[in-house]
Amino acid sequence: MSGALKNDLLLRALLRQPTPRRPVWLMRQAGRYLPEYRATRARAGNFLAMCTNPQIACEVTLQPIDRYPLDAAILFSDILTIPHAMNLGLEFSTGEGPVFARPVRGAADIDRLGVPDPHGELRYVVDAVSLIRRELAGRVPLIGFAGSPWTVASYMVEGGGSKAFAHIKRMMYEAPRELHRLLDLLARATIAYLNAQIAAGAQAVMLFDTWGGVLTPAQYREFSLHYMAQAVAALIRDADGRRVPNIVFTKGGGAWLGAIAAIGCDAVGVDWTTDLSDARRAVGGRVALQGNLDPAALFAPPAVLRAETLSVLESYGPGTGHVFNLGHGITPEVDPQQVALLVDTVRNYVPAAESSTD
Ligand code: CP3
Hints:
Layout: H1 9-14, H2 35-44, H3 47-51, H4 54-67, E1 73-74, H5 81-85, E2 90-93, E3 97-100, H6 107-111, H7 123-136, E4 142-147, H8 149-158, H9 166-174, H10 176-200, E5 204-209, H11 217-233, E6 246-250, H12 257-261, E7 267-269, H13 276-283, E8 288-293, H14 302-316, E9 322-326, H15 336-347, H16 352-355
Parallel strand pairs: 1-4, 4-5, 5-6, 6-7, 7-8, 8-9
Antiparallel strand pairs: 2-3
Helix pairs in contact: 4-7, 8-10, 9-10, 10-11, 14-15
Residues 27-32, 41, 47, 74, 76, 78-80, 92, 97-98, 145, 147, 161, 208, 210, 329 line the site of coproporphyrinogen III.
């Protein structure tokens, strides 16, 4: 398809194979903190116009790769492409985040929804994946992604971002079977969508469960983890028959890392509220870990940012299976130079145990 991969550190670390150093990429690495991103967005008009145009999605995906020696590219898109394809009237209003004109509030609304065809309404995503693979020409692997069914449902039911999750929690307590019907539909949509990304060339895939952490432990298992487990179990191999590693990230899921590892995923994303040494104990070597620098550490003075980065690397400890990342997405106010320092610190890191043996 696109020749041999020149840097496969990410894929190896996700499968807990040895690597000469820790791979690093950053959630939301293509975004508003980059002046070149803001310039492209001004030209495209708005965020959705960027996502739905494969040439622009490709250009923006490559921007952080051209600027920094990162070990992975992530498809430029959004977790809300699936509900957008379900015709709920999605708009991204500046400063407000996503808003749905037609939120999903009851059984009749759920009845109207269908699983979008990845080669139909979502074709722009599949086309972007193929184009990005071609343009990357094997420099680094490409990560595809989707939102978790629970997280995507929360935007659909709330009609946008939320703090209290009043509508979806009301549905969960009042009409749990209806919510399960919605989540089951979203799980099927997510599986078709991720598998189409894999078939088009995605070399790893990630599930973003941004809002799983607002649930009780029992609700988390029933309404979020259960559907992520279904998705993980249904992922296909790549065109050459190789396993495509998957990453499951629940923000606020620190207490449930062992349960997440048990669904059969390859790697678990960890936010900054859990120490990686504790996370490692919790998953018992069953999965790789991805994370978990506090995104706000990018606002620290350079020496402090460096120390915080090293402390994340040290807290993982020796051995394979760590992919360095932030504990959540990078924010628009970050100075691009700080990202350069972070990436450089990870790339040059030599574990204390190894440097002291000579
Ligand atoms: O990581 C990457 O670089 C890939 C691109 C990516 C975006 N969104 C681009 C984006 C990814 C992986 C996402 C996932 C996503 N989208 C999540 C889960 C990850 C997370 O952050 O927890 C969620 C919850 C969304 C939904 C979403 N999209 C919201 C709530 C917002 C508005 C908030 C904001 O940051 O403005 C978006 C918009 C969005 N998605 C932007 C980008 C670069 C900003 C759009 C802009 O340019 O104004």
